[in-house]
Amino acid sequence: MPEMIVKPATLKELWKILPALPPARRYLAGGTDIVVACNGGCESSECWMDISDIPELKTIKETASSLFLGAAVKISDLERSAAVRKWCPALIAAIPYYASPSLRNMATLGGNAGNGSPCADGVCALVAEGASVLLELKGKKRRLPLKDLFLGPKKTALKKDELILGFEVPKRARLGAYQKLSARPYFCISKAAVAVTLEISGGVIKRAGIALGSVAPVPLYAAKTAAWLAGKKLSAVTAAAAAGIVKAEAAPITDARSEADYRREMCGVLLERALVSLVPLAGR
Amino acid sequence: MDAKNLKVVNKPVIKMDALGLACGEPAFTDDVEFKGLLTGKILWSPHAHARIKKIDVSAALKVPGVKAVLTYKDLPRVPHTTAGQGYPEPSPYDSYTLDNKVRFVGDRVAAVAAETPEAAKEALSKIKVEYELLPAVFDTFEAMKDGAPVIHDEEDSKNIPDAKHNIAAKFDFEVKNGEWFKEADFVFEHSWSIPYLQHCAIEPHITIAHFDNTGRLVLRTSTQVPFHVRRIVAQALKIPVKKIRVVKPRIGGGFGSKQEVLLEDITAALALKTGRPVKLEYTRKETFISSRTRHPAVCRMKAGVKKDGTITDAEMEITLNTGAYGSHALTVMMCSGSHTIPMYRVKNNIRFIGRSVYTNLPVAGAYRGYGATQGFFAWECLMDMMAAKIGMDPVEFRKMNYIKLGEGSPVFKAMGEGREGVEQVITSTGLFEAIQKGSDEIKWTEKKLKYAAQSGPIRRGVGVACMMQGSGIPEVDMASATMKMNEDGSFNLLVGAADLGTGSDTILAQIAAEVLGIKTDDIIVTSSDTDITPFDVGAYASSTTFISGGAVKKTAEKVRDMILEVGAKILDQKKEDLRLEDGKVVAKDGASCSLSEVANTSLYYYNQHQITASASHFAHTSPPPFQANFAEVEVDTETGQVKILDYVSCVDCGTAINPQLAEGQNDGAVLNGISHTLSEAMEFSSNGTPLNASFRRYKIFSAADTPPVRTFIIPSWEPAGPFGAKSVSEIGINGPLPAVANAIYNACGVWLFEAPFTPDKVLKAIQKGKNKGL
């Protein structure tokens, strides 16, 4: 454990106390990654800044065009939110695969993104939702497409002390699906995962969002496949063709959880299944 | 005979320690505080094979709070085995408490005792070791070749059959009745393999060594074998048995890993060196790497079958990887044949070729199933292959061939555990009923028909496997018990049997209570304290119910006799006319006196004596329990993912002394086996370093992953067992690998030969099958 854990009540207070804190410091949200890393001897900050109770980070807020998901909102609170159910179909589909119920009561999307893992189920779904991430550093705000936050395994574009405030998801009617493969049915990091969102009009895909988990150094936005899907009619034939394209887009590695070839193959299978699962919903 | 008229036995009596454990009462090894307790820690080898050229502990000794640092130079060099088995142990004497050579990544180098865990850790980091690196070998077949690195090149080890070829145990056996495979219409030959698997008991290995007020060494330890611990520690450290007391508190699971003297010797050495109490507890990582595992195995089987379903010949060649030391190397290998080959009648020829081979990998040992798991994976899959070829239903094929009541097998006599086995015939079996019940529950015929015509990527299938195990080791295992009567008509029952969470204290009390006509509440059980309880080999080889239960029954019968003697005086009746019922001595004419009156009379009034008795039990046979298991699976032929939809396990364990505990044991065994089947495997880097030594990376099935597992107890009556009982603890783990493999074949027409059946492997097999036009 670090020597110091501070818990600012507001953002203002955070920026005020920050300069006086020991230099080796990290944010603590749900703690489900950082505490485990600490117990495993892989985390040795002198100071944790507990941002789990900062009000701005704990809200789910609707504006005219978007839905804001605070970085410190618990995954289980997202699951219960009517607005999230309405506007984040891929995220809602991913939540049952997200760790375990007890961890979902602790974990947050901010932590999920800040951890920078290519396997993060919540992040993968949000990338497919076309989310932006809102960041703040000492009162200075900026916004990035979420997919651009990730630079490599455990590497993000976050500057030192920069805080994830939350995520903005566009309020556009769409369908969403999430497919995941892992070593055992539940509570397992994926071998491969696919998140899909589709905006559909008259049976035709107007816009698609596709993100792949565990098959690249980052949660991968499958831009080519998404672009190809736009303008196509949603059907089993389209799904099969998209599967072929996405396999070329993934960049998996072989590691303890799976082999690269298998992962690549699975991107196709999972995408096809995700798309096919949305066919019956497309007419509604 | 049957269990109909029993009053306490065959009833779901509540496990006697359940409430206390559920409420968190201090019960386990680490739940007691000792004044001045030191922390013990071990320095582990980072190399797979190396000789210690120099070891310098001077800096470690200077760390504040460090009380002792031990290396091989400080301890007697005594070759012994860590396997907690009957004496003389059939495992090679190839282990030393500390040695000048390390044989796997995670082998002992040195040990430290310090005032705090931090000081102990710091001391470990300050031990300077200079190694001479030796070539290492990780594959059993490589290890047996001429010129392979010799892992046990020391001169003083004993009972290694061929150290030069790294062979820790070997056994060949043949029954020959004519030319091999002459009568067979079809001959099959394949190899099945099982990887390194961990027991994953929730309580890690832990020992506290302290001293009593006379200076005797007391080992409070999480063990399945307290009496073997006492003997082996005495041997390894060259101290008299009388100077050691071993206490087994409640245990948080063992599954065989605690049939091992793993920490007791080194903890005792640290306590003796410092004169202080010392605790040594494994972390989870240490449990994965430096405790014991299942023996990885390659099992090649070749068998012949006639078109009419007669099995003509069977050959099993099993090569076990015993890791760096040969703990249980011979006996696990023997059981892989002796518990499996007799399952089916083989008309002509039988051959068994067994090798246990040293490699520079973690040490294998006893693990629930004990070889039978490895053997049945092969045998039961082969059974389905043969059935498929001759066009017979796998269930019918098994019914035709399984060993029937009154039948024996030459294997029983030929293959014992370390010595010749015993001749035996089957004296009880409920296998036919188990197969029927299982077929009905899984809807075998209906589903076979339904799944014969499937299309689409998701395919379903059903599979069956039958198996047997033993009930103790015949003419090797012995148990004993002592009972004494108290004033209120209650009894102390002292047993050496080691309840490791299995509920044996409860079932032994049930057996005694049944004999004495009382409730289990009136029996106070004390188990496994080498100073207090009589001898028992310990909890292994599925022996406790059968062997220890037999000892308790005999003891209670002696006590009953003594009670009736006193009762006869009190009631002025003939002893023969009396019986024990509802806590009373009851005469034929209805006259009665309470057990407390009997106790008080014996203790205070008449011919004063303590009503007490002891008895021992060993057996000339090891009656096998039987099982029929049925799995229904769904195979995703595009991802290779296998999902178990339903799993039915029908168990003939004779009389279930406590049906609820028996069911629980079997559910656990089956789930353990399912986890082996679908997800578990230890992985190693190319230099022998374990890669997934944590629950984060080594996946066992959690509650959420658990598929429906349905256990059905099929009663039979074993004449040699207490109230008709046989064993139940291990057998269930042998079913899932073959039952699921057979169900996968039924679903999509491919065989799997390598556990676990991960999606990657299953998909590869399916694609290979497709290329062959399946």
Which labels suit this protein?
heterodimer; A: 284 residues; alpha+beta; Uridine Diphospho-n-acetylenolpyruvylglucosamine Reductase, domain 3; 3 domains; 11 helices; B: 774 residues; Aldehyde Oxidoreductase, domain 4; Aldehyde Oxidoreductase, domain 3; 7-stranded mixed beta sheet; 5-stranded mixed beta sheet; 19 helices; 28% helix; globular
Short description:
The complex is a heterodimer of chains A (284) and B (774). Chain A is α+β, with helices and mostly antiparallel strands.
SSE inventory with pairings:
The complex is a heterodimer of chains A (284) and B (774).
Chain A: E1 4-6, H1 11-17, E2 25-28, H2 34-39, E3 47-50, E4 60-62, E5 66-70, H3 75-80, H4 82-87, H5 89-94, H6 101-104, H7 109-114, H8 121-128, E6 132-137, E7 140-145, E8 150-152, E9 155-156, E10 163-170, E11 175-182, E12 190-201, E13 204-213, E14 220-221, H9 223-229, H10 236-249, H11 260-282
Parallel strand pairs in A: 1-3, 2-3
Antiparallel strand pairs in A: 4-5, 5-10, 6-7, 6-10, 8-9, 11-12, 12-13, 13-14
Helix pairs in contact in A: 9-10, 10-11
Chain B: H1 18-22, E1 38-44, E2 50-56, H2 58-61, E3 66-70, E4 101-102, E5 108-114, H3 117-125, E6 128-133, H4 140-143, E7 167-175, E8 186-194, E9 197-198, E10 206-211, E11 217-221, H5 226-237, E12 244-247, H6 264-274, E13 278-281, H7 284-290, E14 293-294, E15 297-305, E16 311-323, H8 329-338, E17 349-358, H9 372-390, H10 394-401, H11 410-414, H12 431-442, H13 444-452, E18 458-468, E19 478-485, E20 491-495, H14 504-516, E21 523-527, H15 544-571, E22 578-581, E23 584-587, E24 592-594, H16 595-605, E25 612-618, E26 626-636, E27 642-652, H17 659-678, E28 709-713, H18 736-748, H19 759-771
Parallel strand pairs in B: 1-13, 11-12, 16-17, 20-21, 27-28
Antiparallel strand pairs in B: 1-5, 2-4, 2-6, 3-5, 7-17, 8-15, 9-14, 10-11, 10-13, 15-16, 18-26, 19-20, 19-25, 22-23, 23-24, 26-27
Helix pairs in contact in B: 5-6, 8-9, 9-18, 14-15, 15-16
